[in-house]
Design brief:
Elements (H helix, E strand, L loop, with lengths): L18 H18 L3 E2 L5 E3 H7 L5 H5 L3 E3 L5 E4 L4 H10 L9 E10 L11 E10 L4 H17 L5 E7 L3 H16 L5 H9 L10 H7 L11 H16 L5 E2 L11 E9 L7 E7 L3 H4 L7 E7 H10 L12 E5 L2 H16 L4 E3 L6 H11 L3 E5 L1 H6 L1 E6 L5 E5 L3 H8 L3
Parallel strand pairs: 1-5, 7-8, 12-13, 12-14
Antiparallel strand pairs: 2-4, 3-4, 5-6, 6-11, 7-9, 9-10, 10-11, 14-15, 15-16
Bound molecules: histidyl-adenosine monophosphate.
């Protein structure tokens, strides 16, 4: 009987070797600045009670109304695969009482997120984010720090062709004042049922409506930035002045609309110019009412999520990937049984010293093994046969130019550490 092959799920990007090394590198680079700033890891479930997202992320959003992977589990509970990370972090902080300890709570996370979007380049149904959240401090300085950490992540990838856009959604007072005028403006437009409903829940959504007639109509709508309360305006100015002090370039975009409803105050997006339609490589902002909505105390928070898939696409487009970082330092080719034994122990010793060492397994002929060494991209190759074992010396071949140095096996470690400047 012949079985049919099974296909992977639609719209999911997989990372297999050798490209997976670049993915891993990108993810680590993106999160390194958060670790350096004292953010600590939070590992959370990829599925949660559906209410967490309907309430936390908001029913006016596409994410909640159209894109959630929701199902009933075996106990009849409604479960949703997490479409984003902030709500889950907040749920855990409240549940584990982290907000009763030292503030701000500063955490980072990394992993898969799920949105049933129409798949296209840079837009996947399972995608990867690294993110941070700083909870329990309402201070423009931490807003600036959070933005700077995201910016440093992109700089770590060597990215240059991106722009930072920021705006402020103000405090409750600012939004209430704006809402009165915006709703009056919207009432004069003739809207279809669904759009009117969306406007009722969150009128700012209409700025994000991609239909040309809507864009044209909304071009004259009152902007929230013009309604900021005195304290919101001061805070937003302070954020900008901190960013300038840190030499972080930005544009104020008063029409920015984030795809999630919890945002208040400072919000921001990083937009890359080489990625076509899916240009958002990261975004975030303040969410001062979220903890309360989720049943916790009334504390503020700010954070970001960076799209690892898109950041990697951007690094590929800008050719900023450091290729040789992804390969082994040494490829060891043992010829015969005793050579294999020496190779296994030598490899252990070399790896201990930080030298990435691969062994050619499978008792291949020398020619085949050399081909494998070449393909692996390793920087050095050593062949270990009977004559090398008896002389105690090997030829260390540098693959970039073919230069061969004769080295005692016992000296291999020091010689390589020096050559690799470890
Ligand atoms: P978000 O803007 O929805 O924010 O997502 C953050 C980033 O995830 C986006 O800028 C994009 O790079 C990436 N992304 C989103 N959807 C997809 C997709 N379908 N395929 C590929 N990449 C995608 C949030 O998720 C917030 N939780 C961020 C945050 C944290 N705000 C405050 N704290």
């Amino acid at each position: 009987m012949k079985y049919e092959k099974i296909q992977g799920p639609k719209g999911v990007r997989e990372y297999l070797p050798p490209e997976s090394a670049a993915f891993e590198w990108a993810r680590n680079q993106l999160i390194a600045p958060a670790k350096a700033a004292g953010y600590q890891l939070m590992e959370l479930p990829v599925f949660e009670d559906t209410n967490l997202f309907t309430r936390g992320v908001g029913e006016s959003t596409d994410v909640v109304s159209k894109e959630m992977y929701t199902f009933e589990d075996r106990g009849g509970r409604s479960i949703t695969l997490r479409p984003e990370g902030t709500a889950g972090v907040m749920r855990a902080v409240i549940e584990q009482n982290l907000d009763r300890g030292q503030l701000p709570v500063k955490v980072w996370y990394s992993g898969q997120f799920f949105r049933a979007e129409r798949p296209q380049a840079g837009r996947y149904r399972q995608f990867y984010q690294v993110g941070i959240e700083a909870i329990g401090l309402d201070d423009p300085a931490i807003d600036a720090e959070v933005i700077a950490i995201a910016d440093q992540g992109f700089k770590n990838l060597g990215l240059k062709n991106y722009r930072l856009e920021i705006t402020s959604l103000g405090d409750a007072q600012s939004r209430a004042a704006h809402r009165v005028d915006l709703m009056a403006f919207i009432k004069k437009m003739s809207l279809d049922e669904a759009t009117a409903q969306r406007a009722e829940i969150n009128p700012l959504r209409l700025f994000d409506d991609k239909r040309p007639e809507m864009q044209a109509a909304m071009s004259k709508a009152p902007l929230l930035l013009d309604y900021l309360s005195e304290s919101s305006r001061k805070s937003f100015e302070q954020v900008q002045s901190y960013l300038r002090a840190m030499n972080i370039a930005f544009d104020v975009n008063p029409r920015m609309v984030r795809g999630l409803d919890y945002y208040t105050g400072t919000t921001f997006e990083f937009v890359h110019s080489d990625l076509g339609a899916q240009s958002g490589i990261g975004g975030g902002g303040r969410y001062d009412g979220l903890m309360e909505i989720l049943g916790g105390q009334s504390l503020s928070g700010i954070g970001f999520g960076l799209g690892v898939d898109r950041a990697l696409l951007a690094a590929i487009a800008e050719k900023s990937l450091p290729a040789q970082d992804f390969t082994s330092d040494l490829f060891l080719i043992p010829l015969g049984e005793s050579a294999m034994q020496v190779s296994l122990t030598t490899a252990q010793e070399l790896r201990d010293a930080g030298i990435r060492t691969e062994i050619a397994f499978g008792d291949r002929a020398l020619k085949g093994a050399m081909k494998a060494a070449d393909k692996s991209g390793a920087r050095y190759v050593v062949v270990l046969g009977d004559s090398e074992l008896s002389s105690g010396e090997v030829d260390l071949k540098r693959m970039s130019d073919g230069v061969i140095t004769s080295v005692k096996i016992t000296q291999l470690r020091d010689q390589l550490r020096q050559a690799l400047s470890l």
